[in-house]
Design brief:
Layout: E1 3-8, E2 28-29, E3 32-33, H1 34-44, E4 49-54, H2 58-65, E5 68-69, E6 72-78, H3 84-93, E7 102-106, E8 109-111, H4 115-124, E9 129-135, E10 144-147, E11 153-157, E12 166-174, H5 176-180, H6 192-202, E13 207-211, E14 216-218, H7 222-232
Parallel strand pairs: 1-4, 1-7, 4-6, 9-13
Antiparallel strand pairs: 2-3, 5-6, 7-12, 8-14, 9-12, 10-11
Amino acid sequence: MRQAVILAGGLGTRLRGVVPDLPKPMAPVNGRPFLEHLLAYWIGQGITRFVLSVGYRREAIMSHFGSEYGGAALAYAVEEVPLGTGGGLLLALEHVNGVDPFLLLNGDTYFEVKLAALERLHAEGRADCTIALFRAAESGRYMAVDIANDGRIVALNAGTAKAGQLANGGAYLVQRPALRALGWDAGKSVSLESELLPLLHGSGGRLFGCECGGRFIDIGVPGDYARVPGVLGA
């Protein structure tokens, strides 16, 4: 079974002015919630079960999707209080089945990654975490990632990617035991990007980066959201 965790619990404060009454992943794009586009793409890549980590206005997501979408099963990890990206992930781990690596996705990012390529590098590197990378189009917004010739990550630098530099695309393959070993308990507030990933890397975890050339769409700010309909189509 191929599973994915989608982090969909953020407050989405920067997008609140244009989508005031919805959680960010439910922002409409060509008549459909953004999250529908995201789920459909990954179902097409072979994901058969999703765990949605939800918080702010979660009822909008849960009532819309229920327990199944497009033939894939849906489960929910509910944040009663905001826990950050890492906290939402730790909560979702309680709902991930089995021991195989799972896909981790940001609920506000659409990144066309070939899952088979990500899985291949992950297996070859015996990785604890493999991150899909893209070339940043602007400076200062995304985590810069430096990799060796074999794809092994040598440096993570939150918020410092320059235009044209490899950056974290918000799609990961993750080994659950590697996260458990970090010692953070479910229910704690923690950042994935600035705390969990650097801790995993700094403690000797095997992190790899896979440059992916597919479309990268982040709806996190109004300007980017306004461009999404023309990029995604119907």
